Amino acid sequence: MFRNQYDGDVVTWSPQGRIHQIEYAMEAVKQGSACVGVKGTTHAVIVALKRAPSELSSHQEKVFELDSHVCMGISGLSSDARSLCRTLRSQCLESRWAFDEPLPLCRLASFVGNKLQRCTQLWSRRPFGVGLLVAGYDQAGPHIYQVEPSANYFDCKSMAIGARSQSAKTYLERNVEEIANSERDALIKHALLALRECLPSEVTLTSANTTVAVVGKDEPLNINNDDTVTQYLNMIAQDDEPAEMDAAGDQ
User: What are the phi and psi torsion angles at 144 (to 5°)?
Assistant: First the structure.
């Protein structure tokens, strides 16, 4: 990525048919901390890796509640995410007030896509430098939507965004059928195993740097941080112990 004469604003096309400002925003998402979303028969789960700017500061939140039936995980600029979060919360509130029912996930994804699109057509604006995974449950069942800074959005079976997310995508693709038929606890386990694939070798999943959000049929949104995450991390730790014992026995 480098500066050239075609990246001064978001309305200038390069001779190759590219808009560099949007590509730079997509690059900001790739450099953000990883976030994984999965859905099964009755639930949708988002797990995110939190970062701390320094040892003296707390970890930045990566999963935001939008309503009792929907949340969003982010990768990229947290300040842009907070702005979008306020707007989406207002939309969910308006649906509750006007129709006395939760906002369907497809309408929420369409709204945020249209909002991001407006920023790609005005020279005085810049694209939002954040990618979203929107997870929720409505009358049509559980959903995972991926929303990109380019304003494209997709209804996904499972998805991972952020730094080193390709390793998580490989895990999700390898287990796509099993994940699609999984119940609540199995979904959380798959999501954490996929997130673990994104970690550098010197980093492990802990209660301090991991967020687990769960929403589903007859279960309102529940975002777990800090000590409440430990029970889910123990689930994958228990699976690792037999594998380590088998490896020791083979030696």
Answer: -130, 115
- 184-196 vs 230-250: helix crossing angle, rounded to 10: 70
Give the pLDDT band of residue 240 (cuts 50, 70, 90).
Answer: low
Q: What is the pLDDT of residue 3?
A: 58
Neighbouring C-alpha atoms within 13 Å toward the C-beta of 155? 13
Three-state secondary structure of 169-189: HHHHHHCHHHHHCCCHHHHHH
Q: What is the 3-state secondary structure (H, E, C) of 53-115?
A: CCCCCCCCCCEEEEECCEEEEEEECHHHHHHHHHHHHHHHHHHHHHHCCCCCHHHHHHHHHHH
Whether the CB-CB separation of 213 and 195 falls below 8 Å is answered with no
- Residue 56 exposure: Cα atoms within 13 Å on the Cβ side: 0
Give this prediction's pTM: 0.91
Q: What is the mean pLDDT of the chain?
A: 91
Reported as a single tens digit per residue, the pLDDT across 200-225 is 888 899 999 999 999 999 999 999 99
**Segment 73-94 mean pLDDT:** 96
230: helix, strand or coil: helix
Burial class (CB in 10 A: 0-12, 13-18, 19+), 59: middle
Type of residue numbered 148: E
Across 76-112, b (16+ Cβ under 10 Å) vs e yields bbbebbeebbeebeebbeebeeeeeebbbbeebbeeb
